[in-house]
Amino acid sequence: MTDVDFLCCRCGKSEPRLEAPPIPGPGGREIADKICANCWQEWTQAEVMVINELRLNFMDPKSLETLQRHMREFLLLDGPAAQSP
Ligand SMILES: [Zn+2]
Hints:
Elements lengths: L25 H9 L2 H18 L6 H14 L11
Helix pairs in contact: 2-3
This protein binds zinc ion (ZN).
């Protein structure tokens, strides 16, 4: 199913979208709205490397925050020049 009006905010192409939010919460909906299934697939591979590289521990809320930040950066959810306040 291809939605011609949809342009992925990461690759800028009209790729097939995710069928459902890939993670729970409003962040997941945002990803499903903006990111194509291809780019999400790329992130799931990059995610493993980020987790290994930074030795993230999911019991630690700080680790989850760090992973989220990497995810938003990777998917360009905040735009290329976005800075956190
Ligand atoms: Zn994309």
